[in-house]
Structure formats: C-alpha cells, structure tokens
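Hey team,

Filing this mostly as a record. A colleague (T.K.) asked me to run one chain through the structure pipeline before their review meeting, and I want the input and output archived in the tracker in case anyone asks later how it was produced. No errors, nothing strange. Just documentation.

Input sequence:
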Amino acid sequence: MRVAFIGLGTMGYPMAGHLARNGHAVVVYNRTTAKAERWCREFAGSCAPAPAAAAAAAEIVFTCVGNDSDVRDVVLGDDGVMSVLASGAVIVDHTTASASLARDIHGIAAEKSIGFLDAPLSGGQAGAESGQLTIMAGGDPGDFERAMPVMESYAKAITLIGPVGSGQLAKMVNQICIAGIVQGLSEGLHFARQAGLDSAKVIEAVSKGAAQSWQMENRWETMVNGEFEFGFAVDWMRKDLAIALEEAKRNGAKLEMTELVDRFYAEVQALGGNRWDTSSLIARLES
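Output structure:
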C-alpha cells in the first residue's frame, strides 16, 4: 500500500521501518530533515519536505508526533496532510493526544470523505523496535479494518475500543494504571532496602504471585541500581498524565492517586530526571 509516515521520533522511526520492510511504499516526513534522510538511507523509502508532500499519493497517512499542537500542525496546517489527501484515504494518528482533538479532526476529515483513527500506542521504544506494540484505536469500523493489516507490521495487538476518541481515552487508562504500578513498585523496593532484605530474592518470591507486573519483571533491577537513562521519559509521562487529568475534569472521574504520582514525577524532574525512564519514581525516595 502507498503510505506516508509523519514523525520519525523514538517510536516513529522504527515503526516506519517495519512498514518498509513489509513491502509498503513509504514516504516519510520529519521536522529534522537529517533524520528523515538517514531513515531513507536505512530503509527502502523516500523523504518529503513537508507533510502535504509526503501524503500527496498516500492511501493511509500515519502520524506520530509530540502533542496536540503538533498533530494540528501536520494534519490541518497550511502544509498539512488534509490539504492534499484524496477522498477515501485514512489518517491514523499514533500520537498520545487529547480525545477532543481526535473528534475535531475526525469531523473535518469526514467532510472530505477521509477516514480518521486515533490510535495511541503502548510498548515503548523496545516495542516499536521489535514490532510488538499494542494499539488502542478509536474510529469507524470500516476505517479500522482497512488500516489494521498495515498496522500489523509493527503491532502484536490492535483493538478497536469504540468511536473516535476512544483510543485516546483507553491510552489515558493505560497511563493511569502504569503510574500507580510504578509508584507501588518503587515504594516496595525502597521498603525492602530499608528493611535490609535481598531485593533479588524478594522479587523472585513476589513476582510469582498477585503482585507480578511487567514493570516488576523488567524494571526492578535497574530501579535498585539507580539506572534510568533509557525508556519512556518522565517529561512524556507528565504530558500524558496532564491529558488524563484534564479529561477527568470533564467526565467527573476521581484520579486522586494519579494527581499524587504526577506531583512525584515533578519532584523527579526537579532532580534533573526529565529524560529518565518513568521507573525513576524510586529516585525521589532514595535521594
């Protein structure tokens, strides 16, 4: 299929690569031109000087950028993809953004008979590089069925949650849950150290029971060693939690734990941990 990929960041770069490896004709755009050129040297694809140029002949356009304003720029801006897409094309936004933005873009796209899916991701850099991401999508079933086989190039699980906006809402649930899990694991490991226990033996024991989690299996050792220079950055997590907290104001959800953990992440930022992995919550306990 002829596809465009807008945004070659930590996630987008390998995702676009998987599309190329799976035989799709990929045109990429990235604000940093050198990175797009490097991608083109590494994979069988081509580069474009603007989002519109990348999307001109595309059947599906994938976007994976930073935040709401970035999505608006690459989709709705003067050189945005919406200005050139033909009727019947589909936009798939992998950015973690607001549900309200997804609904706005969907409404504008529908007027031009263009499909739109909000499809945020879970799995981090490792999942993007291995092609094992989880995708939570919102949108029309027909658009989803068209895009899903292409997304399978880099995903192990793809779920249509509901109408447009539902994917972003599900990603908010994901981040809310991760925040609580990482804080609990941080306090548990901190408690074990203060109690003089062998952390490895404790994890060996509790990870076989109800306390088990992906975070425990994959992050406990780096957490106790104070290693955080990898993974999903605290800055990104705070951006995601801010979106969830703002949505909670609208729907009336009580996110007491999330508000608390967001403040804890602010303390990690104050320690200089803006780009540390989210497992760095333990650092504020042991600083």
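Quick notes for T.K.: DSSP finds 13 helices and nine strands in the chain. The first helix runs from residue 12 to 21.
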